[in-house]
Amino acid sequence: MGTRDTVRPNPATVAPGEDVEVPKNRLPDASMAAETAYRLVHDEAMLDGNARLNLATFVGTWMDDHANRLYVESADKNMIDKDEYPQTAEIENRCVSMLADLWNAPDPARAIGTSTIGSSEACMLGGLALKRRWQHARREAGLSTDKPNLILSSAVQVCWEKFCNYFEVEPRYVPVSDDHRLLDGHDLASYVDENTIGVVAIMGVTYTGSYEPVQEIAAALDVIAHDTGHDVPIHVDGASGAMVAPFCRPDLVWDFGIERVASINTSGHKYGLVYPGVGWIVWRDLEALPEDLIFRVSYLGGDMPTFALNFSRPGAQVLMQYYLFLRLGFDGYREVQQTSLDVAAYLSEAIGQMDAFELWSDGTDIPVFAWRLRDGHTTNWTLYDLSDRLRMKGWLVPAYPLPDDLTDVVVQRIVVRNGFSRDLASALLDDLRAEVAYLDKLDGPIPHAAETTPFHH
């Protein structure tokens, strides 16, 4: 047994004659056998639990064996070294063109984009492009560039708060409310001014899974442009929905078919179905991405434009994304995403029928939905208590308050991902009903030693 500050492997797994007890927080003095080191790390990681039962995360937790082989074979490729790995760079460009076509860019061959380490970096790049375009226009008009602002829903993912902080842009949050649960263009004119660099529309709000109506936001901006001359572009944060809507809601207008949409990002490692971490961003055309943000490297006698915050990141995920594009095609992605939507609908319908709950969203946009505790059902327990009870069974189903102006509303949320089957969903419902029945039998409130820490997205 190791002490508090050391760790010792199981004696049955160490090499003969090897006596290993190593410190946890500093380098060991001596080497150990590879199998021993592997076993130590493997056993520690087991404590994280079963990723397939994590219904809090959007990030992919399953890929097939062929993808796993590609992962191992290409784990040594650095995506940024495009001159050293030109074929991986070429495959990255193919993926960008495929996404530009999927998202109805006017001329997919002229659209420009890049892979990223995830949607957060993609959002940073999209925000930077909006800011730089605004700066160029202001300078050409002889105007100040001191006070850029970006308009966001208060339900926006925290990466946009980081963008505004890191790159000195004022965030202007439009609060969600019971009447306007999404950024829908309502009262947008009171937020837009000459310093607005753009509006972010979310295809799949993290809190609830709902799509913000990009077409309605664009229509409100059209009116503002006509009335004030402030011509404001839209960035669509499609971290999840940009890889669901094209397949399962083909009639929904949200992408480059709307002229105001300048850029779209998505997470390859969410509903792109790849392991973490890979994201994508595409601009509608070359004019949407200012040239002075692009760095150029030469390879194979040609020219390769790059736009990234990182200078080392894996190329394996890009190859796995291309593998999935080839393997599944449009019809395959539609089948996978629709299966997840069907499981979400099955779960949300069953949970919505339970006396204890009231649905906040139903999982018909992306396969994500949330519910609240029905008013008057109980004062003995909360959704935080239910989350704790489910965790005892291995399920991670978070509870958290909604954003500003709705912080008194606590919801619980489920994310259905590829690999979460209807059978697993049925097992979850059995456990959920059992835990609700247990909690409803309490004859007094559950004591809480400390205030519950909200779930962080």
List keywords for this structure.
alpha/beta; 4-stranded antiparallel β-sheet; Glutamate_decarboxylase; Aspartate Aminotransferase, domain 2; 7-stranded mixed β-sheet; Aspartate Aminotransferase, domain 1; single chain; glutamate decarboxylase activity; decarboxylase; 457 residues; pyridoxal phosphate binding; 10 helices
Walk me through what this model shows.
The chain has helices at residues 34-45, 65-73, 86-102, 119-140, 158-166, 214-228, 245-248, 316-352, 383-392, 422-440; strands spanning 6-7, 22-23, 112-116, 149-153, 170-174, 196-202, 234-237, 261-267, 279-283, 295-299, 302-306, 357-359, 368-373, 399-401, 410-415. It has 457 residues and is an alpha/beta fold. The chain folds into three domains: 6-48, no CATH class; 68-325, 3-Layer(aba) Sandwich (Aspartate Aminotransferase, domain 2), CATH 3.40.640; 343-440, Alpha-Beta Complex (Aspartate Aminotransferase, domain 1). A seven-stranded mixed β-sheet has the order 3-9-8-7-6-4-5, with helices on both faces. Strands 12-13-15-14 form a four-stranded antiparallel β-sheet. It has a two-stranded antiparallel ribbon with strand order 1-2. α9 packs across α10. The radius of gyration is 24 Å and the shape is globular. One of its GO terms (cellular component) is cytosol.
